[in-house]
Design brief:
alpha+beta; 5-stranded mixed sheet; 4-stranded mixed sheet; 12 strands; globular; disordered C terminus
Length: about 475
Amino acid sequence: MTDKLNDKLNVNLLTTQKDIKNYIKQLKSKLIYFFDIPEELRNHPLIVSAEREYGIRKSVKKGYDVIHNYFFIEELVQCKNWLDEVIEKELITTFEDFNSYYEFLQGDIYENACYYKYNFSQDELSKYAIDLNRINFKCLISCNIDDFTLEYTQNEIKLYKEKEKRKKELKKWIEEFDSCNSYEDFKKLICNFNKSKFAGNLKFFLFNFIRHNKEKAFDIVISYLNNEYSFGFEKCLCLIYEPQKVYDAYNNQYYSQQTAKKYKKDLKHFIEDLENKNIVLGSRSYFDEETHYFIYQLVGRYENSSRHTVEISTYFDTFDELAAYVKYDLSYCDLSKAILPNLDLSKYKIDEHTNLPIQYQNNLTYILTKQYDRHRNCFSVVQTWTNENCKIIKSYSQAFKYFFDFVHFLKKDLSNADLLFCDGLANIKEFDDLDFTNTRLKSNILDKLNIEYELIENNDFEIICLYCNFKMVTYQFLMAEH
């Protein structure tokens, strides 16, 4: 009986070895990818080695997570999507002990790795000949909170310049739209446009096209709206052209007859509401971070509702062009994202609803929030600067999966942080390098720190309130006739 059992095990072992060789051959030829390997063989040492050699499995970061008390490896693995395209997906593998972690990595424990708060045993040091001089006990990020200030960072300036270069591409497309003299020209252009990286911003180009030649654009744009998916732009046209003219010309052929009638009826009701002044019109202006154009926007919304019904945008290449258009009245104007180094404020009307560029802001309040987010299972740091009217002028929000990056970012200053629900802090044996002044912690951690404390009531309502420190800032509009 024992001999038969051994024979069966030997046959299964030979079959598995044969399968592994076959899978490795297919991996090399890129006939299969990570998820094509049976789950029980995916972490087989020979399979893993082959995937690493052929670039199908790439290590991103690894190390010890003290909060969860395990070792981890983050990898990118190649697989195919439903379009049969090769893509990369993130894979995280965890290990309860160093031995299994080391064996899986086949000794590759140094590069892109962090072992913050892990104490290697003497047995591990000798068994694996670990070189502590090569071990990173700090973090896996290079930046810290000092790199994120009210002033523009080097990275932000670089990104700003890149957006300015991208603006030249936008201008080329604007010229292409402006050159259309018929709906046939427009259809050909749209075919190419839909393949471009700007395809999701059609309204931007339509508004610029209309502004370039309002009369020529009407027949072309309305023909497009009559033959394509409706996205509500016909309502925008009612604030640019005579509403009845738009209504008479709008007859969508893209939808079924019943659906087309519904859209036509909706347009009729919109025009009636517009004429009966049920729709309140207001204006605002701002610098758009994406296009790097300055925008004057007319906004229509139903009375006693914050929901926008329609928005009409006029785009300006420079701030001076916008300023002249609004007659130098910067009320309800947000320039906080713009870099305008030589702005003479004496030339403009400015009130409490004006958001000036950062370098012209005074008396700002800085708010720093540090916490463990138990819902997202990560640490977060939010920096916010608000003006005297509680409007957010600038903010940064950082999320950290690992405690060592959170600590490094804050330069070990965890004072006033909310770590009440971070149970994994109990895994830390020494806290000498961390500043926990006025930090919200559980009693077992405070006992370790020898800090006196008062017990507080632990209820969900109190904790939920911690996430509601800031009011949402919404625009208010000047009442204005178009």
